[in-house]
Structure prediction request, 168 residues.
Amino acid sequence: MKTNLLGLVLLFSVVFAMNSCSSDTSETSSDTLTKTQVVEDYTYSVDELETMKLINEYRVSIGLNALEKINHISFKSEEHDNYMIVNNVVNHDDFVARSENIINTLGAKTVGENIAYNFSSPKAAVQAWLNSPTHKENIEGDYTNFGIAIRVNPTTGKKYYTNIFARI
Prediction:
């Protein structure tokens, strides 16, 4: 009985950790990784630029470096927004694949991700992230670059935000 209970607790812990809304991070050495095609073109919306501005203003206000945007990271963020819209989910599915792509393509050492859903403005989304310890940890993390995508579900009108951070 104790073994079954312990097994269930362990299983629950693993499932919870993999499905929590907290952001994920990934670290690796890129010395032996193969580079893949870099996406260089990305057109930013007013909301995306405002969200990045708000994040950088916050970082600078607490003595951290401002982050530089990278179009490839925003493209990977956009792919995830589109995935969430098509599948009607809000999650970090395939974060490992996104982070590995950024590591392989850009030589990133560390990658983190925040997502948000159904916030009407960049200010509201950033404030929600700052009010969440795990999302705030990413915003305050030891990163040098970031990207963001905000997409609207054409059926519901709700916004999906994916913000990816990287240390390069």
Remarks:
- Residues 2-19 form the longest helix (18 residues).
- The chain has a mean pLDDT of 84.
- The helical segments are 2-19, 46-61, 71-87, 95-106, 122-131, 133-139.
